[in-house]
Structures are given as C-alpha cells and as structure tokens.
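Reviewers of the previous submission asked for a worked example of the structure-prediction workflow described in the proposal, so we include one complete record here. The input consisted solely of the amino acid sequence. No template or homolog information was supplied to the procedure at any stage.
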Amino acid sequence: MQRIMLILSAVCSLMLSAPATAELADPAALMPADATIFVAADLPVLKDRARRTLLWQLTEDPAMQAFMTSARETVQRKMREGRDEFAEELSIELPEEIPWPLGGAAAAMRVTTKEVTVEYPVYRPHEYSESPDEFASDLQFDEEDDDAGETRTYTYSVPVFDVVLVVDFGANVKDFQTLEQRVIDAALDQGLQRRRESYRDSDITILTPEDPDEDEPFGQLAAYAYRDTVLVIGNNVDWVRHVLGRMDGAAAPSLGEKEAFRAMVRSLGAGQIVACADLQRLIADLSEKARAEDPEVARYIRGLGADGLRYVGLAVDVAPDPVVQCRQTYRLTVEGPKRGLVKMLTPHARPIRVPAFTTRPMKSVTMIHYEPGELFDQANTIFSALGDMPLGMLAQQALAETGTEGRPPVSLRNDVLGQMTGPPVYRLGDAVDPERSPMGDVVFSVAARDAVALNEAIGRIHAAYAMGADSRRELMGSTLYLLGYEDFESPEASAVTIAGNALLSGPVAALEAAIMSLRGDEGRSLENDPLFRHARRHLPAEAGAWIYTDWRESLNGLWDALRSGAYDDMDDVYLRPAGEIVAALAVELLGEDVAFDRLPPFERVEKYFGAQTFHLVGTGEGLAAEGVILAPPAEQ
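From that input alone, the workflow returned the following structure tokens.
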C-alpha cells in the first residue's frame, strides 16, 4: 500500500496554485452527500489576489532581492532533489516543467473507523508484565522461545479516510496525462495492480497494491478518471463514480443539496478557500463503535455538548481591497441551545476597551470577556454531567492546607474566582530580559471586585504552599508572590500580584514593568497609537473576545535575529504568534542553505507590515469570528 500512497502523493503534490484560465463550477454539488469534510479552492482567483498583497510586493522589493535569490535557489534545489528522488524510486524521467492545474480544486472526505485483528507470538520476555491486557506489539520476540509459534490475537480500531479530489487542469490536461501515464507504468513494473472500468463514457482506472495493508487508513486502492479537463481521483470507487455522475447531471444526492451545508457556506461569505465540516456526522461516525460497546461514551459526548455541534466552517478571502490583505471568517453552529463546552466557552459581548497597563511598545493584546466565577460554575456542571467528582470538591481538597488558626480553607470559587471580574487580558510585549525570553513577555491580568479580599486569599494560598518568606516581596504598595521554586533574581522567575484593582501574573521583570505602568503614562497608551486606531475600525463596537497584533513590533526583533543568525530555536514554537512560527519553520527547513544574512534592515521593509485583528462573538446559532490582516495606514 505504500506504493499506491506514493502514487497518490505524487499526483496530489501537483495540485498547487498556478496560472489560471479554467473554472470548476459549484464543486460541492459534485460531492457525495455522506462526506463530512469539504474543502474548495479557487486557484485562479487566489493567485491573482495574492499578487495584490503587500507580502507579494515585499518579495519584489529591490532591497529583498539578494535574499530572495538565495531563497528561490534553495527552494528550487530542494524541489529538484525531491523530484529526482521520486523519479529514481520509480526509474522514470520527469520533465523539468510540471504541468500545473489551471483551474479550481475541491476535495471531500469521510472519516470512520474499522476494526483490525492481528496476531502476535505468545512468548514474553521474563521482565515484561504478565497481564493479559498488555498490548504486545512493542516486544522483542525471539523465535527460539516462542513455544512452537503459538500466537495471541489482538483487535483494535484504526481510522478510515474516504477521499475524493476534483481538479481542473485546463489546457495542461494533456501534458499531465502524459506524466501520469509515465508514473503509473513505472509503478506497474514494481508490482502495482491496475484494472479499468467504463462509467458514463469515462474510463476509471483502479490501482491496488500487490500486498494490501489492513492498517492503511486511506484504504486499499486509488481510482481516477478524466472528464474533459477535470481529473477526479479518490480511494473510493463509488465516490469517483458519484462525482462523474453528478458532472453528467445525475440525480444522486449531493453534499451541496444539504440545507445545513448551504446555510454554513452562505454565512461564511466570499472566499477563495472555503472549508466546512459536519461535526455532528463526524462525531457520530468516529464514536459509533465505542458508543455501542460502552454506554458511558454517549454520556460523555452529551455531557460535553458534543452531540449538539452541527457545522464548523472557514472562508479565506485574500486582498478583497487595498487595505485588507486577508480576511478569515469562521463559523460554528449548534443544534438547539448551547450546552457543555460551547456554552462554557461562549464569552459575553462587551464594548471594546483597552486595559490600563496595555502601553506601547507591545506586540499584541488579547481580551476574552469571561467571568471567572461563571466559567468555574460551567466547568463544574460539565464535570458533574460526566459523572466525575465535582470541580468544587476537587478544588477544596487541593486547598485544604489553607485552613489555619480556626479559619476555613480558602474557597477557590468564592474567595478567588468570585473576587475577579472579566475580561482576562493577555499582553505580549518586548522582553524585559531578552536573554530569558527572546520572543517577548506575556502578562496576564484580570480585574478585581475586591482587591483587598483577593489579595488576602492569594496570600493565604501562597503562604500554605510556597517556599517561605523570601518568596514574596513588596513593590509600590503591591505584594509579589513568587510562583514555583525560582528566586526573584532568577531569569526564569514568575509571580502573581494584586496591583491597583487587578490581578497580574507573568515573568517578574515584566510584572514589575506592568505595575509601574499602572501609574499612568497616557502618552504611551495603545489608544494613542495610529496603527491601533487604524485597526480599531475593523473591530466591532462589542465583542466577546478580541485580539490586536502590531506586526511591526512583533517582527522587528525577529527579523534582526534572522539576519544575525541568532534565531534557530524551535522550542515551544507552537506557543508563538503565526509570523514567528513561519520564521521558525523556515529556519528549520532552509536555515543551513538560505542566506538570511542577506535580509535588509527591518527599517527598509517595515512599510509592508501593518496590524492584525481578530474578534469572536456568540450568536443564536453558535459562534462567529473574523480575523483581518491589514496594510498600515497611508500616513505610515
């Protein structure tokens, strides 16, 4: 099956954006009705729109050409190496120019599970557990000690993916067919099996491996056919037939005819990339066997509210106007009232206001309008619905040591979370100590209803579980409570404090800076930043959650680190902003070959970077969100 997947990978790797003339109309109407995941890309428009973006203009800036030459040479060389390795594997020659698709592309998928039964030798090394429930696939077996080949049977579930892909090659279809035939013929010489069938005046080619693998999640075959300039390829022959039939106008049910699907697509609006998933069907398919075997699974699904999920969708609209470089629209719909996790995580809609300690310079700020006490109550309800120990009881057990001198223990719900009022705020700013935190410091804040009572509760918890009196200190009338086992002078130290009318937490150096900023330096307020005022116009008056990112501040230090060769660390990359993740991956994949030292000073290219906003609101149907990447204002 690895051979057939190699062929599929090779074909699908060619389905990248390219110059465009052809068009694939209404691809959802072609897809099977039982598909649970759908993705469509208007490749011609996507490429045209991409050329309008500042990012594209950045790559064409004269100051970037020394770096771009190095980057292009490296990427092209790695692509040639991959192509040559593939050609050598199949003993064929590939053309220098790959025939790219000239039109749209779409894919549909269904995810289910199946049981696989395997046998392993009974023999176990003497140091291994004797439990019959131990899964033995990781054992080192010795044929001399296997008791004449006696085996044990194991049954387990594996995911199964049914996939169909439709892509329009336009005028390039003949060249692609020539390449495809060359690849398939070479694979046949190495054991791949081929048969053909005719369906609605189209020849379907069906490929199967010589040695099927039951564990293969993408099945045991690949099938493909052409209809004019359109390639239809998948691992389910019935799905390929379905698409061909729909292209002929057959009356078979399709995904595009489902009202819930159409409603989701309408709500997403314009986009060159559209993706939708039927969560209700997906969860039902994946949990079907587990629910049949264990009634507790269904109870957990209900308790989490997962059985009420309906659709989730995403649309990406690139460069709809000169200011908006990219807009991402997200939707989540539920059936009936919100329950479980969706209810718990739906924030309150509140007017957008900038918190006091959010001063410049800073990289980003995130505000989520949760009430901590309400969030705890919702989580407690979910725990109870799942049949677990109530969260409040677990919290009281954990805080039992805070009850001293005849006083009851601190109540996490009433004395801590109940004394806080939303929204929680996360501020990412420049690191006070760059050696300790090269990507910046995050400070968390939440307002206090009663700062004195909250400080007392935090102090009692800290006294019960901290390392002594030297783990706290005073600063400008606030007590800093050290977290963990570091001392205050350690670059790794973090702390929590009550300053003004808010609880603050973060690295000690950043926390001290935040406390001092609360004295009020109005000239450095984010509200006075022209870039923020520019981005603020793309946020609603009210939101449940919102994020603002200043890409100039976020990328300035990173850019210099790339130029100097100091940035080569992939540690905790998943915790970083998107721009830093891209940079980290670029260094990881290309760092030894690309001349990052040829990047110009950031001041030469900062005009290409603006801001990014994101906001989320609760709706009657579920959740709605929008992210926007913005060009800087004209005056900048």
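Confidence is low (pLDDT under 50) at residues 1-23, 130-143. We consider this example representative of the routine output the project will generate in years two and three.
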